[in-house]
Each structure stands twice: as C-alpha cells, then as structure tokens.
Amino acid sequence: xxxxTIRPADxxxxxxxxxxxxxxxxxxxxxxxxxxxxxxEDAVADHFLAxxxxxxxxxxxxxxxxxxxxxxxxxxxxxxxxxxxxxRTVIETAxxxxxxxxxxxxxxxxxxxxxKLGFTVVSGEFLDAGIPHVDMVRVSE
Length: 141
Description:
The chain is an alpha+beta fold. 28% of the residues lie in helices and 34% in strands.
C-alpha cells in the first residue's frame, strides 16, 4: 500500500472524484437515494480527498458552521486509518478557521470511531435516509 495523503479538494474541479466515492459508499452500498445525497451545501462546503498514491479513496466535507459530513472511504480501504486521517485533517482545518466546535451526524455503528477522535453523542438515535444516526459534538481546547 502506498502512503495515504489528504488534501483540500475543489468542488468544481474535483467533483467527479468526490461523486464517485460518495456514490459508491452512500448510494450503491447504503442505498441512500441520490436526491438525499446531493444538496446545495456541497457548493459552499470545504471538501477533502484522501488518496492512496494518485488514487482518490475517501472524502469528507466541512460546512462553514463547523458541521462535518459526507465522510466516506471506499470499501477496500476501510480499516486502514484513512477515515481517521481524513477527520483529523478536517478538524485541524476547522480549528484554524476558529471553529472551536465541530458537529456531525454519525451512523450509529461509527460512534466509537468518532468518540476516539473526541466527539461525544449529544442526541438520541434517529433515522437519516433510513439509517440510524446520532448527533455528535467535539469542542476544541
């Protein structure tokens, strides 16, 4: 395996790679309806891409209010700390922008992953696109 790198992405320029990853993870694997996956917030969000070598394998976005979302890593690269590196990069970017609080809606099965990164569950369980989620918050020191 090559080294994993994370870089900021441009929604216009990197759209096809971001879409390919999110369509694979959310629409194909998790049966999220396309109309729920794509929203107007993509145009105002900061996007990130994770690469193995030159191949994009993961993505996430950061909204101006500190919400992190659309975190996705292609199946063959899960369990290799790609998501960890991706979220740490997003948190670092948020903190540099003065966003001391980061929020996200996590799929319930992923809560322990986010807890290891400093997030705390702040809601009961709810369904989003038919998938159980909880809201989580992380406050920077």
